[in-house]
Amino acid sequence: MNNLHSYFSILGELSLKAGAIVRRHYNSPVELERKPDDSPVTKADREVETFLRQALEKQFPDYSIQGEEFGETKKSGSHRWIIDPIDGTKSFVLRTPLFGIMIALERDGVPALGSIYFPIQDQLLIGSAETGTFLNGKPCAVSKTTELAEATMIITDPRDLYAVERSPQLQRLAKRVRLVRGFGDCYGYYLVAAGLADVMIEPDGLKYHDVAPLSPILQGAGGTFTDLSGKIDYANGQGLATNQTLHEQALAALHSE
Fold first, then answer.
1. 20 to 30 A from 256, CA-CA: which of 6, 76, 126, 191?
2. Are 3 and 36 in contact (CB under 8 A)?
3. Nearest Cα to 206, choosing from 145, 137, 160?
4. Neighbour-count burial for 96-123, b at 16+ CB within 10 Å, e otherwise
5. pLDDT tens, residue by residue, 159-186
6. Which residues of the chain form beta strands (DSSP E)?
7. Reduced 3-state DSSP string for 28-87
8. Backbone angles phi, psi at 111, to 5 degrees
9. pLDDT per residue over 67-83, tens digit each?
C-alpha cells in the first residue's frame, strides 16, 4: 500500500476492537506490575498489544512490528508498525480516561502515519502530513492562536515545573502562557492537534513508541512536533507540540534568560 489513506479503515477497525478490550478491563480490579524501568504495566496493556500484533501480522505479513511490551518482530521490508497499547497506563490505573491506544506506521525508518484511539471517549485521531489529520472521520486542525499570552499549555507531570533539570526553562514558558493544565500523555497531543490547546510539552522520559505517532498526526493537523531545542529527534525523550505560529515563540521562551 502506497496511499496512506488506505490504512485508515484498517487502523480504525483494529483500534475499536482494541478499545473494547480496554473497556472490559477499565472497571475491573487492575493487576498492576512494575517493569524493570519502574513504569507500570497491566494485563490490559499486554492483551491489547497481543491482539494488535496478531491482527497486523495477519494483514501485513511483510511488515515489521515493534511494541512496548513484546519487543520487535523484524522483517526485511521497508515498513514497520509501532504499537503503544495503552499510552497513559498511570491514568488507566487511576480510572482517569485520558489514555489512548497508539499505532504508528514507519516507512524507511521514518514515522509516516499515526493514530490514537481514546476508548472511553470513543474518539479516533488519525493522520499524516500526506493525508491531513482526522478526528472521528472529520478533518481537524491546530489552533489559530498567535500569541503565547493567549495560549493554553499542557504538561503531563506538573512536578516537571520545579523538579527537573529543565525546570527554569519550563517555568519561563509557563509564565508566558494564559493557562497551564496537567492533562497528560497522548491526550495533551490530541488537544493540540484538535485545536483545543496550543502547547504540549514533556521535558524527558518519552520512549520511541510514545512519540512515533505524534509527528505525523501533528503535521497533518498543521502543527509541529519537535524536541525542546526545535529538532525532530525521536530518541532524546522530549516532546514539544504546537501550532506553527507558536513554535518559535515557545522555543524562544524556553531558551531566554
1. 191
2. no
3. 160
4. eebbbbbbbbbeeeebbbbbbbbbbeeb
5. 999 988 889 999 999 999 999 999 889 9
6. 32-34, 40-42, 64-67, 71-73, 79-87, 100-107, 110-118, 123-128, 132-135, 138-139, 152-155, 179-181, 199-202, 223-226, 239-243
7. CCCCEEECCCCCEEEHHHHHHHHHHHHHHHHHCCCCEEEECCCEEECCCCCEEEEEEEEE
8. -60, 125
9. 999 989 988 889 999 99
C-alpha of 92 from chain center: 15
Tens digits of residue pLDDT in 198-227:
999 999 999 999 999 999 999 999 999 999
Separation of alpha carbons 174 and 177, rounded Å: 6
| Cβ–Cβ < 8 Å for 157, 182 | yes
**Per-residue model confidence (pLDDT) at position 257:** 67
Residue 1 clears pLDDT 60, i.e. is over it: no
Q: Give the least confident one: 23-37, 51-65, 103-117.
A: 23-37
Contacts of 97 (CB under 8 A, 6+ apart): 91, 118, 120, 121
Query: If you search the block for the grid coordinates 493554553, which residue do you land on?
Result: 152
